[in-house]
């Protein structure tokens, strides 16, 4: 019996959807939205990056073509609700920061995979990894009227960008999609967690 | 002489454009924008849902291919200006709530029609109905820096979603587009008005 | 030896990217963002209009297909940083207003060129010129949570719209793309600067 290797895109997509649904729903709870508001923001945060990614490469978004994305996002909202009940005040709670870092990493990998698959240049791979990674969080910031993290956190978009560069470099020396996506996501996640842990920042102008 | 039945999409689209142009222009008046700001916000509110709808199914937006959409939106702005002059303070005025409910209903129907026409699954029909219905109002909330209604009103996106489900169910038993769009829009409108009238809400978390 | 005439689209695109990158980075400095925030907002302001333009005509955005757009945007951010260091407080500084007017004019011309090239109607040309012109500034206003200029400045979107009308009129009498783009951009820029200089405005409702 042969067990098929899991599709790297599908794995990263599910991880990212779950993580960002948790982030979005916890942020919504923090903003005192009610149950439906929590669900809507959780789903929008989960889907935002991927829908942007698919529109940019000119295809009908995955989230619209199958039920998987929204179902996974709803499951993530369920997790977020449970977590919110357990931890109480979630503002800047480490679980939000961790889930956000995981979502950033996983979606950056999906962006790089889609860009490579669409035959974009090295450059297109890096841009799409970055945009896909930061898209969901940016949307939730705009909807909740927060200052977008992407503008005030130095090592947020930067982490996704570095992951995109790594993906392209590895792909150009023939590393396969599965390994490559894992390395890209791991690198983004590691960088982001280090940046949070050690308060990395750049000087203001 | 044969009188052609009106195209369900065209009818719903015009109704939605008019309604949301009225909503957008009244909200803009309420925010003390001047004449041009009122026009710009009215047009953007009217076009927002439909442009999003068309981008998601990967086609050049209707609003860009013909003059109808913008012309109708401008007419709606004219109506909004006249209404604003008559009723004075329009904050949460019932005319705004009514027009918004009509726009939500009509655009949800256009979203369902376009999704069905594009061959999307049951699920895609529901998602596109919801996104198209709430798109214009969400855009106007973001531009006016209000808390998006879609996040704080429990029976707003929900109404469009139910309409999308009904459209798909009826389509799957062979009900024609015209009847179906009318039922979908009527259901969304009825639910939304009932929700406003009886203050339906879900518990906060 | 033959010197090829420069491609009107490429010229206008580079001018617009540079100008809006300067605007975005100066606005970011003004909002006390740090170095990376300045870079991110500068790049997003520069790319916003063009990406919207390309999505609307249903193509993969130029900014994703080649490195030119992002490189030019980054160069513009460099200029913005240098200008910011020289002039100090940049709030409503004339250099921001001028760069913004130049970006509006140049991007309106690219929108008209792309629309004409995509075979859109007169109407599509005007809409795409307007949307492309105002897109970047609107995005930066939303991200920095300012009231969008497009809603409160009477002669902002209007200038781009007039430029689009002029482009279409000239194209319809056979004027070539190069001359036409230059006239369109010059007209938008002139109108916008006159509007700023003489405080043109429309009555409030």
Could you name the key traits of this structure?
205 residues, mainly alpha, 9 helices, 0% strand
List the SSEs and their pairings.
Three copies of one chain form a homotrimer.
Chain A: H1 8-30, H2 35-56, H3 62-65, H4 68-87, H5 94-117, H6 122-143, H7 149-152, H8 154-172, H9 177-197
Helix pairs in contact in A: 1-2, 1-4, 1-5, 2-4, 2-5, 2-6, 5-6, 5-8, 5-9, 6-8, 8-9
Can you give a write-up of this model?
- The structure is a homotrimer of 205-residue chains.
- By secondary structure, the first copy, chain A, is mainly alpha-helical.
- Chain A has one domain.
- In chain A, 78% of the residues lie in helices and 0% in strands.
- The first copy, chain A, has 9 helices and no strands.
- The N and C termini of chain A lie far apart (61 Å).
- The mean pLDDT of chain A is 90.
- Chains A and C meet through helix 6, helix 7 and helix 8 of A and helix 2, helix 3 and helix 4 of C.
Distance between the termini of chain A: 61 Å
Count of DSSP helices of chain A?
Answer: 9
Uncertain segments of chain A of ≥5 residues (pLDDT<50)?
A: none
Largest interface summary: A-C, 27 and 30 residues
Q: Approximately how much helix is present in the residues of chain A?
A: over 70%
For the largest beta-sheet of chain A, the strand count, sense and barrel status come to: none
Q: Whole-number average pLDDT of chain A? A: 90
Provide the number of structural domains of chain A.
Answer: 1
- The secondary-structure class of chain A comes to mainly alpha
The succession of helices and strands of chain A, N to C, reads HHHHHHHHH
**What would you call the shape of chain A?**
globular
Assembly type:
homotrimer
Fraction in beta strands of chain A: under 5%
Radius of gyration of chain A: 16 Å
How many runs of DSSP E, i.e. beta strands of chain A?
0
């Amino acid at each position: 019996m042969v067990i098929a290797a899991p599709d790297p895109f599908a794995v990263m997509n599910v991880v990212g959807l779950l993580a960002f649904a948790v982030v979005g729903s916890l942020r919504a709870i923090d903003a005192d939205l009610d149950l439906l508001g929590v669900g809507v923001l959780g789903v929008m945060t989960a889907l935002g990056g991927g829908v942007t990614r698919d529109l940019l490469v000119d295809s009908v978004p995955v989230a619209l073509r199958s039920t998987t994305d929204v179902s996974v996002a709803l499951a993530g909202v369920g997790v977020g609700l449970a977590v919110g009940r357990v931890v109480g005040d979630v503002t800047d709670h480490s679980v939000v920061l961790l889930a956000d870092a995981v979502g950033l990493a996983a979606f950056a990998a999906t962006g790089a995979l889609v860009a490579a698959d669409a035959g974009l240049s090295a450059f297109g791979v890096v841009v799409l990894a970055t945009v896909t990674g930061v898209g969901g969080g940016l949307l939730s910031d705009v909807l909740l009227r927060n200052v977008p993290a992407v503008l005030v956190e130095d090592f947020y978009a930067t982490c996704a960008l570095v992951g995109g560069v790594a993906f392209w470099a590895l792909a150009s020396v023939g590393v396969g999609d599965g390994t490559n996506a894992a390395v890209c996501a791991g690198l983004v996640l590691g960088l982001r967690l280090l940046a949070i842990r050690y308060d990395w920042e750049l000087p203001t102008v």
